[in-house]
Structure formats: structure tokens, C-alpha cells
Amino acid sequence: MNTPIAMPKPTGSAKKPPSVQKEDAMWLQKELINKNYAELASARANNRKVSATFVPGNLNELLMCFDFARSLPETNALQNGMRKKSGKMIMDAERDGQSEDVCTYVKADLGMMMGGEVGPSGEVLPRPDILLLSYTGCFTFMKWFELIRHKYGCETVMLHVPYQGEGKIAPNMRDYVVKQLKETVIPTLERISGVKFDIDRLRQYMRESVKAEENLVAVLQSAKHRPSPIDGYFGAVYYIGPIFTAFRGTPEATEYYRVLRGEIEERMRLGLGPVTPDGAMGEEKYRLVVEGPPNWTSFREFWKMFYDEGAVVVASTYAKVGGLYDFGFRHDPDHPLESLAEYCLGCYTNLNLPSRVDMICKYIDEYQADGLLINSIKSCNSFSAGQLLMMREVEKRTGKPAAFIETDLVDPRYFSAANVKNRLESYFQMVKAKRGAAGAGLSVPMASLGPTVIPISPAH
Amino acid sequence: MDNTPKVMQIVSRCEALFDDLHFNAVKDWKAAVPGRKAIGYMPVYVPRELIHAAGMLPVGILGGGDSLEVIQGDAYYQSYICRIPRSTIELGLTGRLDCLDGMLFPSICDVIRNLSGMWKMLFKDKYVRYIDVPQNYQDEVGGTFYMQEMQILREDLAELAGRPITDADLNASIRVYNDNRAAIRELYAYRAAKPWQAPTSEVYLVLRAGMVLPVEEHTALVREYLAAAEGLQRVKRDNARVVINGSFCEQPPLALIKSIEMAGCYVVDDDFMLVTRWLLGEVPADGEPLRELSKAFLHASASTAAKYDATREEKGVFLMKQVKNGGAEGVIFAAPSFCDPALLERPMLQDVLSKHGIPHTAFKYAENTGQMAPIREQAGTFADSIKLWNAA
What we know:
The complex is a heterodimer.
Chain A: H1 24-41, E1 50-53, H2 60-64, E2 69-71, H3 73-82, H4 86-95, H5 104-114, E3 130-135, H6 140-152, E4 155-160, H7 171-193, H8 199-221, H9 236-244, H10 251-269, E5 275-276, E6 279-280, E7 286-291, H11 299-307, E8 311-316, H12 336-345, H13 353-366, E9 371-377, H14 381-384, H15 387-398, E10 402-407, H16 417-439
Parallel strand pairs in A: 1-2, 1-3, 3-4, 7-8, 7-9, 9-10
Antiparallel strand pairs in A: 5-6
Helix pairs in contact in A: 1-9, 1-10, 3-5, 4-5, 7-12, 8-9, 8-10, 11-16, 13-15
Chain B: H1 6-19, H2 24-32, E1 38-41, H3 48-53, E2 57-60, H4 84-93, E3 102-106, H5 110-122, E4 127-131, H6 139-161, H7 167-193, H8 200-209, H9 215-231, E5 240-245, H10 254-262, E6 265-269, H11 289-299, H12 317-325, E7 330-336, H13 340-355, E8 360-365, H14 373-391
Parallel strand pairs in B: 1-2, 1-3, 3-4, 5-6, 5-7, 7-8
């Protein structure tokens, strides 16, 4: 059967001693993610087939139509990173022949499989029956699933999503994706699952998706308020968890986003800032836009470097990697396959660089941000290649200072806390200086504000 | 009178073209007839027939090699990104690519994909297009998409040219490129048969000349080289016959190719400049041209890491054919540092080779790698071990 529709209530058992502070919705999110791991772990016992797919271009509603238990390897890798397990997995994969130069998500996943497929929750995850290769915005996805297929014999089915090289979705791009869904993807999913495709079931899931999407957008856009009631990067990674993974289209996700929105609106009404792992954040001193994924192995330490200085991220591009809902996209039950195609085509990393720059400039303007911070990720060329030019362009267009740090997703060897902290502190001082100069009516050339464009090198 | 053997004269000319990072051959071609245009393209593959049919010169841009000092380009990239985009940016920012009227960025990896957007931002007055190719190989699905993409390119180029590109134009260009592909197949077959007569350091330069010369002239050059190479008898050595894999985008320095040869290897096949050999057979030149180009791409094209293998069984088949057809005794994986496609593909290909008992070795390079001693030692040890295994 499909994901049960009963909405789990936050239970006391899920709450940990208050060494880490979280909003209620964050605990609920954690329960959802753990529940999915439990479903995956029990999939074989429950005679369910298992799919794996990626977050950008994640066709969760479609996979649910075939009753798959649903695994997302990027999420597994980041969860392992947050639990400090990924370092060994990466080195195991490197010993098995993977290059030190390539994506650490891939190596963490391969290392996890080599280590008996014990997932982040400690339960053994089943080997997928089908790898739905949503080739959206990341070249590495293709090699990743080819590697798993090569090593473990899992079948792949390709969904090639053309890149928005011209900054728009052309009709032939959408038609191509729809045709692949009809001709290749759906027949394969039917064959593997033994479940016949029912388009009305897909429509029903999409109706649920829309409700969650509306509430997610309200939550993310709450950061336009001063002070922002959320952190649109560190906090947002919790908020996007259910909708970017195995829950979009479920009543559980709908309920989660309803609860979350209520909580955030209440915080906004009370004039409160975000909840951090150390409790309520103090005075909001800096409002930033962040480009690039977070580092997961030192996630809390990284976040602390921001909230200790009163810096809140009001918008981030990473929170759009699984869909650009805040720019109006909604799943459309009246045109289900076309809508799935548009969803895949519109994910952030499928946008060309000029579109990404436009988006960041718009965020800086609409969220009244003080500047841009780029967290450049060694593993992720899709995000990282071109970010130095993006930074210059954003500085030029907005007049706001930008800074650049380098870390990695899940390789602890590439997180140099001292370097990152130094850079951030310099950046905050620069923002302050720029703000002071602006207040005094002075024009401060960007060059006089220090070497913001020089990337720092992590300790290797 | 010049007593230099003909083959060396040809190679010298090719080397001069290779060394010229100001693309004077392109400038000369354009200057010969006012109004001519040139379109650059990056690896691995673009349908050059469309550019040719528009009356334009396709120009292969393969980075700056080891002689270009990259100053500005480095400021655009983090240390963990390969060399080719930064030297290409350097070429652009220093005006060396001003002779190009447009640039095409094929779908090969995220770095080159993003470079297309950077080019749009940096060179606003140039035509820039990302060339997506299908990863679905059904005619009615991937084929239709690819034909539509080619049609867009055709219309864009027609607009640049100021005249339509007819089917007859395209079919004529397909014929011209069929001839070029045939000549290059002859060149590769000749080298595989007599690698001592056509060293790869020369074959590479002959191939590379095709990145800047008009295709008709290049075809003639290839045939001229073949005739000249046969005319100069050279010493046959007891070298190990190897295939090079992984060098399909950022190019190894010429010294690296020479080092491999000097270390005791005959390169009998490779993946340099695959654009010249991507379409494996003759493309019909009397039909609907875009459909024929699409069919050739989908059903009769080379394989590389940037192309999806629809099933596990297909992985390594192309490489194994190269090994078998070239009579190779081993494979050298020579990939650029930080090259995601090549480095992610490599473990799978190594596994296939191991299962077939084909020896292999691997190293990384950058286009500006200067130290060849470690590579020469590794290639030499590999060649020696092949010879020992064969003797055993």
C-alpha cells in the first residue's frame, strides 16, 4: 500500500532533551523523515518495491502511484553527513576506486552501500528495485546511478530533462519530458511495480501537493518581514525536507506545512526571530541571501557562526533546488504530466547562470538583504562553476557586498571552521561599514571594502 | 630546396596551427571573403554540418594548452575546477576569440554547461547557445527533441548568415563531413595497423588542424599526411599497444602524448577530439538532413562518459571494441583533474576491462601539466608489465 494517510502527531518520545532547540514543526519534520526510513527498512517485509531518485526533479507523486517505498540518495548522504558518518563512507569509496576529485554525495552513498547498506537511522536500507534517473540540473546524477547499477545490478530508467540554456522552458523541452514519461518512465514503473498507472490517482496527489506548496511559499516569504521569523537557509533545510523528498503529495505533508505556517505566522505576529539550536535568536543585525548548498558535516557549527553574529539568512537558492514554488510554480492536477515536466525543468540548478543572477538580485531587493554570501561546494560543479562571476555580477547590480567561502557537502576534510569563521566575521564587518557609509551618504566602492572576491581555501 | 620529408612538413604546419592561440588561420579565412563568419564550439560533439551549411567556419575550442598564461581566467574559478574553462575564458577575455561570431557549448558536464551562461554574461554581443543532446535514444522521443534543437540552431545560424539554410545546403555539408570522417577513419585504421609509421603525437596534430581549418582542406590534409607517412619508413619497435581513454574534453599537453610514446607505448586508439569521429558511419546525404543526423547520433555514434548507457550491459562495450579492433594490449586512463565525467566513468570501465583481462593504468593531468617524468615512468612501467605478461 501507499504511504498511510494518517497524520502522525508530534510525540514526546521524538523530543530530545533540550540541548538542541527546535520549533515544533522541526520535530515533526524529523518524525516524517524517520518514518520514511522505517518504511524503507520494512519495505521487503511488507512486499513493497523500492525506488530511488534525486531531489531536483523528484517525481514523488508519480512514484506513489506505483506504491514504491521511496529512497532519496542525496538525503541519505546528507543525513549521514549530519550524523558524522559520511567521512568513513567517502574514504571507503575512494579505496574502492573512486577519485578524490568527484562528488562526495556519490561517494558517501557508494560507501554506505559497501558498508552493508545501513542507512542514517541505523536500519538496513533495501537495495532499490528501480533507479529513476531524473537527469535534472546535475550531470553527476547520471554517473551516480550508472555506478550503483554497475555495482549492484539495479535497473535504471532515464528521464532526461533539458537544461534551460536560454533561460526559459521552450515547448519542445516540455514535450520531450512528457513523451519520456509516457513512453519510457511510466511503462517501466508499471513493469517493475506490477501496478497499473492511474492518472486520477496522480491528480489526487497533486491536489495535496498544491496545498503544501502554498504554505511552504508563505513560510519562505515570511522572511521578508523584519525581523525575519525564520532562517531561510539553515532553518529552511528543515522546512523543505518533506516536500523535496518522499512526502510531497501526501496528506502528511499538507498537515506539516499547515502546522509550520501557523507556527511561523505566530512568531511573526509576536515579532520573534528564528529558533536556532541554542534557542531564540537575538537581535537581527544582518540579513543575507545565500547561494549554494550548506555544509552538512558541521551544520550546527556553521549555523552558529551566523546566529552568534546576529546574521539571519532571509533567502537562499538552495531552498529552491527541489522546485521554484516562490516564483509561482504549482503542480497542476488538470495537466498532470505537463506539470511534472515543468516542475523538473524549473528546478534551480536547471536554470542558466543569468537566470540565477536575476533570482539572487530579486531576493536581495525583495527581502531587503544586506548582501550575498556564496557557500561554494567542492563537490558540486552544478552549483559552483561560475559562482565567482555570479558574485561580481550581483555586487555590480545591487551595490551590496558579497563574500565567498568554500566548504563541502559531506566530506569533513573540506570544512575548515577557522577559515570560514574568519571570512564571515570580516564579511559582517564589511556589511556594517557599507551600511554606515550608506547612512552617512558616502559612496563606498566595493574594492575599498577588502578582498571579498578572493576565495579561501579549505584545509585539505 | 627543402629536404625535409613531406610528412614532417605537414606535421610542422599542423603544429604551427596548434601553437597559434590567436587563431590566425580563422582570421585569414574570414578575411579572404568579407562577411564570412566563424562559430566556435567546445568538446565533445556538435553537428558541425549546420555551421558549414550556413557558410560559416566551425572552430573547435579546446582550451589554452600549456603555453597560455592564465591570469584572468583563474579569477573566475575555484581551485577544484578543471583547467579548460579558465583557459577558455582567458582566450575570450584577451581578445583571442574575437574572430568568432558565436560559441556553442555542448552538453558534456556541469562546468561547460555553466560556462555557456558565463559566456552570455561576459560576451553579450556574441551568439551563444548551449547544445543539448538527447539521452533518450528513441527516434520519436529523443530523436524528435534533437531534431527540434537542431532546427533552432539552423534558424539562428541562418539569421546570422542572412540567408536560409536549405535541405540541399545541409545535404551538401553532410557529404563533405562524410568525406572528412572517412579520411579520419582511414587515418585511425592506418595508425592502428602501423603505429610506428603514424605516431600519435603526429596524428593528434593532424586531427587538431581540423579544429581550425575548413573541413575540405582538412580532409585533403589528412589524406596527404597518410600518403606522406607511408612514404617515410620508420623504425618499428616492440612497444605495447594501448588505447587512451578519458581525454575527450580538456586536452593533455602534446608533451604528455609524446611521453607516453617515448615510454614504450603505441597508442592505437583514443578519444581525442571525438567530434571528428562521433558519427561512426556514413550519414545518408539524400534524405531529410536533420532526421539523418539525428538517427546517426542516436543509433550509430561513439560513446563517452557524457553519454548515458541505457543498460548495464552497454557499459564499456565501445571501449572494448576499441581495444579489440585496435589490437590493443592495454588501456591508459588519462583524465584531466576534476573532470567529473571521466573520473566517475573510470571505475566502471576499469571493472569491465578487468573482467576481460585487459591490463589498465590510470593517471590524471591538466592541460598545463609540466612535469612529465612521473607520467613517463608510469607509462613505461605499464608498457613493460604488458610485455612481461604477454611473454608469460
